[in-house]
Give the backbone structure.
Amino acid sequence: MPLVRVDIIKGKSPEYKKNLLDCIHDGLVEAIHIEDWDRFQRIIEIDRQDFEISPDKTDAFMIIEITMFQGRSKEQKKAVIECITSRLVSRLGIRPTDVFIVIQDPPDENWGLGGKQRGRTA
């Protein structure tokens, strides 16, 4: 159950944003074999003046934060980064240097699903 947050500069079309989310989801499906229905994603749009980035980045720059259950290997996380970036480059023409991905995998006790703590045995 990856949770995805994407910070982008405000002003992109609904079609662009849908394609962006599809690129991320499809990359997760390929890299770590999540189910197609397992889609918990959101886009946060930020005014350009409120989004500081280095001068070598374009207005297509984005920060993608992926929070997922623990247990993925270093190689699987590498595949997530590569699959998502590859799709963003090929489908949206985004430069690889404009894609910043952070993967977080908090312990099970930090997850609450359906009012229950994940992994709790008692």
